[in-house]
Structure prediction request, 1158 residues.
Amino acid sequence: MSTSEKWVGRSIERFEDEALLTGQARFMDDLEPVAGLCYAAILRSPHSCAEILSIDVEAARKLPGVIEVLTPDDVVAMSKPIGNLISRKLQYYPCAVKRARYFGEPVAVVIAEDRYIAEDALDLVVVKYEPKAAVVDPEDALSSSATVLHEEFGSNVVHERTFQYGDPEAQFAKAAKVVACKVNYPRVNSTPIETYGVIADFDASNGRYTVWSNFQGPFALHPIACDALRVKGHQLRLISPPSSGGSFGIKQGVYPYIVLLALAARKAGRPVKWIEDRLEHLAASSASTGRVTTVEGAFDAEGHLLALRLSQLENVGAYLRPPDPAALYRMHSTLSGPYRIRHISVDNKAVVTNQVPSGLNRGFGGPQFYYPLERMMDLAAAKFGMDAAELRLRNVVRSDEFPYDTVTGSRLESGDYRKCIEAALERAGYPQLLARREQARRDGKHFGIGIALAVETSASNMAYVNLALTHAQRLKSLPKSGAAGRARVIMDPLGSVIVHIDSVPNGQGHRTVMAQVVADEIGVLPEDVEVVSDLDTFGGAWSITSGNYSNRFSTVVTSAAKLAGQQAARKLRAAAAKELGVDPDQVQLVNGMASAPGGKNEPIQIRRLAMQLHWDAGNLPDGVDGSISELAEFSPSSLTVPDEHDRMRSSLAYSFQCDLVALEINSATGRVHIEKYVTVHDAGNLLNPAVVEGQVRGGFAHGFGAGMLERVTYAADGTLLSGTFQDYMCPTAPELPDVDIVHVITPSPNTLHGAKGLGDGCSMLTPVTLANAIADATGIKDLTPPFLPGRLWHLMRGEDPDAFTRKRQPPETGSALTLKGALRGDGTVAIDAPRQQVWDTLLDPAKLKSIIPGCESIDATGPETFIARVRVNIAGIGGLYDTKIRIFDRKEPQSLRLSGRGESKLGLGEGEAFVTLKEDGGGGTVLSYEYSADVGGRVAAFGQRMLDGVVRILLASFFDRLRAYLRGETPSSGLMATVRGWFAMLQMLRGPK
Amino acid sequence: MLEIEAGEKTTIRFTLNGKPVQAQAESRMQLADLLRHVLKKYGTHVGCEHGICGACTVLVDGRAVRSCLMFAAQVEGASVVTVEGLSNATGGLSELQAAFRRHHALQCGFCTPGILASATQFLQDNNAPSEHEVRDMLSGHICRCTGYTGIVEAILMTAQKRGGA
Prediction:
């Protein structure tokens, strides 16, 4: 390579990787930054909607090793509700105050000497709840008979605004065709593999909280957390760990826990560490908003899209948690998408439901918007009998129209949308795919092609959040605008280069790319640039917009670093010019050396120039004010507040994306096979193509997951059904198809490297691309992801794919049972003992006590009734169930029917079983059983796959022990039995070999 | 194997990354907690504690095991290797680790130590794997950053370099 070649634009290996690959990188749970750490565990509500009648923490407090218990009363006494944009009456504390509003909401925090003791003590906190009817579906939240979640506010509709741009009604009146599409878009959780973590310390001498947390920004939430804690900015010092185990937006949502754990530390008088576990994360971290959208398009006779009418109902979960309702507005200024639409009306509502509060998750507001828009485009193409790609080509902004001002105020600064679409068609081999589809259809196969487009916004103007207010309200509130990025370039007295950046990365490789950026400016090698990306609100280069969101790294943070590097280079040139006897602008900074053609001296080491500015400060060159410590802010002046017509530039840069997929569905199984997936991106210039490819592939994995596998799922009573990684299914390597990536590059004139963003990318567009292809393959118009084989199988048969989340069904005919529970099974077991002996054993409480795994006691309370205390452990979580058992239809020694109902802190379970005993003819017995059970509360969050496995293990263990007992052995107890149970569980989770 | 009563602490002796170690643990302590919080080997990461994500995978007597689903007491007398023990003898990146860096097989790196452990055993058992076999092995791990492409490439390239394929 020639020495003048730039580092930016090259796929160099990442500087982050060596520490990560050798176990030297330090993440949140690896930190012990202060002495005397103790550990917190959080008690969470098993009810989605319940009054809290009482909380008794005395027994927990007395457990040896417990330091303190933080209750909602303490939280109210020491803090204020976390403020929101809309109303003070929508009170949100980081724990349930008087009422629990979602499954998993924090109710109390136990602080103990270690995590094991803290979790033990959770079992000793006694909470009395009075459950109420939950509101789970966002459309149900509108009903006048629905429970009002926030009584002080008085309505579940927490936000409502309508907008009009142009004259949509006139366009609809004259339209040749109107096409409508309604979608109830589900919620997802980005599930980084590292969960939330917080270490909080309180210094009573100055009232300061110091908090280490893997919070990623936006740092606009720092003032909000300060307000909740009733402290000034310097009294909440936030420090991020050196490494973060992924986020995809969701670690924004750790901030309520920052407040909660800060209060816990204050009450305990000790620094407190809390690391969220996976079950907590899936239940109560955050999820994207769900959105019910009706979109109508008015088309002229040639298929030109004239106007849009949108009605959006946003499900923000149980509380309006900042920055929401921002997800509703992230795409507001690009509601026309990539199309030339001049007339738009929007009716926005946000409702609260008994679900986890919403927050940033990859794509923030993007997938919810592009899914209905791009479904509608496909429905329109079908209505016109036009090719789906052709209809889009007819409507996209033309390449000669850039910069293009959308009717809602955005300026799409550059692009060539037609070229991108054509690139997708070409790479996919579109004509061949169409021919394949013809052939497949003749063969009776379900083959489909899907295409979809999106404009991706980069570097959000924080003013967009205020679109939730009317212009009059905005005039009375604090103006917000801008999308600043910050960086500081330092050269120390030994000439080392240190760069502070404010992008708070979660694994994207920002330190590597930033080293490339600064190396280019000051003429050193990237490996000689040390980039510090952990952020400390007591120092570094941060501002209110800092953080890892909305593609701000590739746009404004790299631009800021370039500016800071230029400032540093200016000083280096001035210092070199003095020695070389040339003008500063003649000095070249390359490969660690400063030189000038025609200069009087040999080239000078850049390191030495930097040292000189420290050591010889009395002799600075002209125009140089000191050594190199250059802070630069890149703050685009075009990003201002919305005008009186609610128009604004919501972002600095606008990328473009076109996805195309061809797939085939197995109609016997509902399984989708991806034949070809092409994704075309125009993200301007690429700063490090390998890092970019990682972003595209990662975004695709998220989009594919949301399209095919993932959904935050609640039962009708608000119980979470997707509470483990068995039930909230993230794509693994075998499921993910290959993706063919194409880049079309039109540089952005708005950023200093011409780069735009693509971090959201496929996460916004893949779900609808898949849906369009599945609709094409099946003819089904009304499609909601995820397209799990089972859901698709039901959809292809015209059935409700989500029946299992609805109310309980009557049992199937032919069953011996009266209960049709979610957990069902049957089996036959051979027992080497006479039938009468088996019968007698099964009906003897004393004998059963030693046979039932985990049974602590069993007592007869009547001739046919018993009470058993049984400890059940599931996935490391144990609960003691008090179970009432009743025997019916006793036909000694042939058959009996059992019903049981158990309650524990894990929740409620009820079940029924029918058992028959037959003689096998050889002196033994054949026992057959059929069971059906339902569970509610915390245990239900383990979901059916996990629970089915647990039931099978428990049954197998029961029959093993029964046989052992009948052989005259004492069934084992203690650790060995548990260990065997875990091995069985492990094998089950790994699936059959 | 040791039998320990609930609440009782016992001394567990085993080999960690080639060195003999001993540590006190309660019967209920998970291996992951022993490694991280008692022996301070923070390279092993905990992602789900129910055996699905695979981040906490370590090698126990050469076999890839979820350290969140194994009790500390179970490694008595065993040889345990964590990510800290996977580098080559001189402390530099091993072939597999270097391939991960070259193929951008990691982003946040949180799941990586577990994947390296599984891949290490996998490559010992199968010196010429197909892409399908690599993906099948990886089904025991969740990576939310990369989409797996780089990981698959890194493992295949390592096998190839070792002369298996």
The two ends of chain A are 51 Å apart (CA to CA).
